[in-house]
Amino acid sequence: MSLEDVDLTDLDLFAGGFPHDVFTRLRREAPVWWHEPTSHTPDGVGFWVVSRHAEMQAMASDTATFSSERAPDAAGGGTLIEDLPYGFAAGVLLNMMDDPRHHRVRRLVTPAVTPRALGLLEPDLRTRTAAILDAVASRGRCDFLVEVAVELPLQAIAMLMGIPDEDRHDLMAWTNTTLTYDDRELGSRSPASEQAAAAMAAYGTALIDRKRAEGGDDVVATMARGSIEDQKGRAEALSDLELLMFFNLLIAAGSETTRNAIALGMAALIEHPEQWDLLRRDPSVRDSAVEEILRWSSPTLYNRRTATRDVVVAGKRINAGDKVTLWWASANRDEAVFEEPFRFDLRRSPNPHLAFGYRSHFCLGASLARLEIRIMLEELLARFDHLSLDGPIERFRTNKHAGVKHMFVTFEPHVGRSAEFRAQ
Ligand code: HEM
What we know:
Elements: H1 20-29, E1 32-35, E2 47-50, H2 53-61, E3 66-67, E4 76-77, E5 84-85, H3 101-109, H4 115-137, E6 141-143, H5 144-149, H6 151-161, H7 168-179, H8 191-214, H9 219-225, E7 227-229, E8 235-237, H10 240-256, H11 258-271, H12 273-281, H13 286-297, E9 303-307, E10 311-313, E11 316-318, E12 323-326, H14 328-331, H15 366-383, E13 384-389, E14 394-395, E15 404-406, E16 408-413, H16 418-423
Parallel strand pairs: 2-12
Antiparallel strand pairs: 1-2, 3-9, 4-5, 6-16, 7-8, 9-12, 10-11, 13-16, 14-15
This protein binds protoporphyrin IX containing FE.
């Protein structure tokens, strides 16, 4: 296939997972590559594709040149290939906002997701994980994605946001419908996606109103009742739209990503039984195992920036206003950084993966995601000797997320060793 035939906006290219063969070639032949628009490309505008770790780190660090918000005075921008309207999504969502406002808003929410704060949630998360796995353990077969991998991140984010447990599946269904493209093309809407977005907005608005009135120590209450400093140092509350967008972002980021890491991590352990055995034998590899699972699964495939000025990167001239996409999933297989990048190695060290992005917008939920993956591994080890994939992994149509839809597994429970794995 010639590079001219590559279309990263054709979602069918991602049907079997991330197209590693295409990106291996891009890293070698065209690390900063201009993607011409195709019939699938939103806005009919081309974009730059950055595939190597080194350029990605440099560009993600230079937020003045590569904006998450927009090019100066542009009507749209944001971190997806398609332009989102400025003042509605771009410039309002935390991850699509530039400093200094981005930094101020981020500071407001950071205390809720520090490793220390999360330490307090750990016992509850472990109890929930045990319940999730115990519910399927005796059956010998389950849809690991739907019944296991979705559940822990969804319950965790609901807990963190003070959302009643019984509402979580509605939120999940709305998020799935708005973020995936099973019934439409990239950048377009369908009646179902419009309806889901409206239902989500109505739910979020009611929740925010309630938290404003009632208070509480969850993230939504903290944001709704807290304030940031404006340019003159005065206290300023977040706008209703900012709060609603933040609510949407947390639900999506908190639930759509970690579940893919858990599912694809499990699939990798099934496909590499010697690594599963290593994990059972040697508890000291658990932390590096979590990092390797993140590198391997790379749940967020890319994020976009917009160039705010003309700049040359890897010999290519990027013009002010150009869209630039950073493909974290490609950086995580960069031969120049990772020895044998296609080897799944739980002992890998160092492991400077970019699964959580880099620098200014580094994932706010990284500690939570790491904790969830580790607890899940420990509770799986405590219950199952052996798991197998039962059929191919099914995926959503998306080029943005790793997008696992269904993953059936069979397993053999074992008896009497649970305590051993948790205590280590
Ligand atoms: C394995 C799981 C996860 C992955 C792979 C992941 C990935 C990412 C990436 C790549 C970014 C950077 C976006 C950019 O640079 O444009 C990001 C930002 C973010 N993530 Fe995550 N994420 C995960 C879990 C979570 C969780 C559990 C939460 C919620 C608690 C969360 C909340 C956020 C937020 C709020 C941002 C925006 C931060 C900012 O702009 O300052 N993420 N995430």
